[in-house]
Specification:
heterodimer; A: mainly alpha; 16 helices; 77% helix; globular; B: mainly alpha; 3 domains; two-stranded antiparallel ribbon
């Protein structure tokens, strides 16, 4: 029986996956392979049993590894794929606790939660668009974990929740710290990804005690807001080359639409009211507070640090007096429509989050923090 | 019928500016040409006018039945016992602040339409102004802390964007980051307070704070301290005052609205809204009175030695907001509200007149004069010189603030170095990125 939540997540994955495919990229890897990753994620989402779901996720990760443009990144993703297969195998052998450990490790590797961020950081620095692909398929990985692993290891998930949330929140703080001192846009993108990775790990940890909705909301926000942010990094770099944040960039004069779309996605990632990021933060912080007030406080510190890092990055890349006049065009019409569609989803889900929450509650009725 | 009218007026008050923002933003994204000044001005002033009309209608409805009322819509989030309501609280405090904010925002927009004519960033200015219009109405009318926080965040973001409005210069950008960092650091207090209120009192409705007396003294004081921290940051009270003078880098009409009229008072408004909690937290009350008076003294001394009009007004604003904070913390909430409204109106007009200060001074006084007050004359030359020097250096508040936050920057850069070393050691990529 296919649930509304699965359909909604499939649409979100499709929209988020089209972001890097439609945006101009310096070195666009084969679209077929990227499409394969998105299709694998959707197969995982609808797979009737955990083993198939994890196998599909592993195939998707290998597709991502093929296009990521970095050996370290590919190695990290291959390791994540191995962990994912391990989780599937453990499920097949009725070893729920091992499945939980392997699935969490795979999630940590693909979301770049510190200290497992070496692969994702290398991808961000070499081919930022590939990380947008990876973010886009994340909701499927989170859904598979919640849907197949949590019922198989409820005791471990429950017992490990306080540790997982503090570890996730601490990783988020480190990501936030890295964003404050990022010297260029790619490292800012990498640090933001890592901070959100910590946030997602905390949310998935809290899901072990019933806070499932927070994990789904954080994953959707990750795919759309953070993915949009990454797409804007790709968009500006493909027009102006690598962007350093030390000198005022002044790119807003030549690229006003990229500037403000970038600002919107960055703000949505740090819980701009009226976007799904705000709902995700609200749910997550309440969930974390119940497990550990320390984790809740750390997460707020991480969010504050990332906010300052992003404003600094935005100023350094786009504001200031123009260093030169760029002749490349602003967002193309197809890029504008796609950005507009993602913004519309972010805003609709932020103003009326119940449409997504209701679909979560249909599947997980006992999810109240 | 009456309830429906009240609901409609509240919706118009809050959503009027937001609809204008969405209209201009969709023009910006989808139209081949960037929107004209006329279109932007018309849409935003239209949205703010609707907001003012809604605020006045809400105020009028409340006058017809002057009892606290709640306008409730279907919940924003609902999951078992966890409910985040969309509820607006209509009472004397909220209708006064809402009408004041709507009026001053509209006036500022009208003033700006001429003041910023042909200025690059005209569209950006008006979009941010309308975003502020929505944020401040959410704050004014919110009946739950979540809704209040949504507006609060929008105000903070708008404030930072206005400070960095003149984006070609480095100083405004640095000042914007400084103000935003202060806001976000202090907002940690707000969100912790919000979550703790829900956990301890079962709801984030403002009315739930009435039950704070049943909490343990420690819980009450910690909860109140969280909100006090948020208010200190937003209202630039000590020790978070150093961002306010730097915020003067923005356009004069936005400085008038934010740092004279409304934004600087929203921290105080938060304390007025949560005074039921403050009333049962005597330790925090004492801290509030102390910090308020200290801010007032500090700002009054520094204001007297400033050499430009906007800085003088900024420190004068601080002095008055310090006094209002002390009044609220001491329990004089009605006096504080009257003081707040009077101060917002006076200060906004002063900011808007700031570019004409010299003309005004010559017209009013014939010449600019130095006024030494009695206790300054009584101090003696040496003490007076020391006080002058200390005031001129703003009691080294900037240096202290920078020293306090330097460790964040130090640890961030140190961590980045260590991280880069660790990654280069394990990386498989041979050539640099």
């Amino acid at each position: 029986m296919i649930s509304t939540l699965q359909l909604v997540l499939a649409v979100i994955i499709a929209v988020a996956s089209s972001l890097p495919m439609l945006f101009v990229d310096h070195a666009p890897p084969a679209r077929g392979v990227r499409l394969g990753a998105a299709v694998a994620a959707i197969v995982a989402l609808f797979a009737p049993v955990g083993e198939i779901a994890f196998a599909a996720l592993a195939v998707g990760l290998l597709f991502h590894a093929r296009t990521c443009g970095s050996r370290s990144g590919a190695a990290g993703l291959a390791l994540a794929a191995a962990m994912t297969l391990g989780a599937g195998l453990a499920l097949a052998l009725d070893l729920g606790a091992w499945a939980w450990v392997a699935s969490i490790a795979a999630l940590a590797l693909r979301t770049g939660g510190w200290p497992l961020h070496v692969g994702t950081a290398a991808i961000a620095e070499r081919r930022p668009g590939a990380l947008v692909d990876l973010a886009a398929t994340l909701p499927a990985a989170v859904f598979v974990h919640l849907h197949h692993v949590l019922p198989a290891a409820p005791e471990l998930a429950h017992a490990a929740a306080p540790v997982a949330v503090v570890a996730g929140a601490a990783a988020a703080v480190i990501g936030g710290l890295a964003s404050v001192s990022a010297p260029d846009l790619r490292r800012l993108w990498s640090a933001s990804y890592s901070m959100h990775g910590g946030m997602l790990l905390a949310a998935v940890g809290a899901a072990g005690r019933g806070h499932v909705a927070a994990a789904i909301f954080v994953a959707v926000s990750f795919a759309l807001a953070l993915g949009g942010f990454g797409a804007m990094v790709v968009a500006i770099e493909s027009r102006t080359g690598p962007v350093t944040l030390r000198a005022g960039g002044g790119r807003s004069t030549s690229f006003p639409r990229i500037t403000w779309t970038f600002a919107f996605f960055a703000a949505a990632g740090i819980a701009l009211p009226g976007t799904i990021g705000f709902a995700a933060d609200d749910l997550l912080l309440h969930a974390l507070w119940e497990e550990s007030p320390l984790a809740s406080t750390l997460m707020l510190v991480a969010s504050a640090l990332l906010a300052v890092g992003l404003l600094r990055g935005f100023s350094g890349a786009f504001l200031g007096s123009p260093l030169k006049v760029w002749t490349a065009g602003d967002l193309s019409m197809s890029e504008r429509w796609l950005s507009g569609a993602v913004i519309a989803v972010l805003v609709t889900s932020g103003i009326y989050p119940m449409w997504l929450l209701e679909s979560v509650l249909q599947v997980y009725p006992v999810g109240a923090p | 019928m009456f309830e429906t009218a009240l609901s409609v007026s509240v919706v118009l008050t809050v959503l009027g500016p937001l609809v204008a923002v969405l209209f201009v933003a969709s023009n910006l994204v989808f139209m081949p040409q960037l929107p004209s000044e006329r279109l932007v001005r018309g849409a935003i002033i239209g949205g703010l006018s609707v907001s003012l009309a809604g605020a006045l209608a809400t105020g009028g409805s409340w006058l017809l039945a002057p009892l606290p009322a709640e306008v409730e819509f279907s919940p924003w989030l609902k999951m078992g016992s966890y409910v985040v309501p969309i509820v607006f609280h209509i009472d004397a405090l909220s209708v006064v602040f809402s009408a004041l904010a709507a009026l001053l925002t509209l006036l500022s927009a009208r003033f700006s339409s001429t003041y910023l004519h042909r200025e690059p960033g005209y569209t950006r200015y008006f979009v941010v102004l309308a975003l502020f219009g929505t944020g401040v109405q959410l704050v004014a009318l919110a009946g739950a802390l979540d809704l209040f926080f949504a507006g609060w965040e929008l105000i903070g973001l708008a404030s930072a964007l206005f400070i960095g409005f003149f984006k070609d210069r480095r100083e405004p950008l640095l000042s914007a980051i400084r103000a935003f960092a202060t806001y976000r650091a202090c907002d940690i207090g707000f969100f912790l307070g919000l979550v703790a209120t829900h956990e301890l009192l079962g709801s984030t409705r403002l009315s739930a704070l009435e039950g704070a007396g049943a909490l343990s003294p420690l819980a009450r004081n910690v909860l109140a301290a969280c909100f006090l921290l948020a208010a200190l940051g937003k209202s630039a009270q000590l020790p978070f005052s150093s961002w306010l003078p730097r915020a003067m880098e923005g356009p004069t009409p936005s400085s008038a609205l934010f740092y004279g009229g409304i934004s600087v008072h929203t921290g105080l408004y938060l304390l007025l809204r949560t005074h039921a909690l403050l009333d049962v937290a005597p330790v925090v009350q004492g801290v509030g009175v102390g910090l308020g008076l200290l801010t007032a003294l500090f700002a009054a001394l520094v204001a007297r030695v400033q050499t430009d009009a906007k800085s003088t007004i900024a420190f004068s604003t601080l002095a008055q907001t310090g006094l209002i904070l002390a009044e609220i913390a001491a329990g004089f909430t009605t006096l504080a509200l009257v003081h707040l409204v009077g101060h917002a109106l006076l200060r906004m007009s002063q900011y808007l007149r700031a570019p004409s200060t010299l003309t005004d001074a010559h017209l009013l006084l014939g010449e600019t004069r130095n006024h030494a007050i009695w206790w300054e004359r009584a101090l003696g030359d040496a003490a007076r010189t020391r006080l002058f020097a200390a005031s001129l250096h703003r009691f080294r508040l900037d240096e202290w603030t920078e020293a306090a936050v330097a460790w964040v920057w130090w640890s961030a850069t140190r961590f980045s170095d260590l991280d880069a070393r660790w990654r280069s050691r394990v990386a498989l990529d041979r050539e640099p990125s």
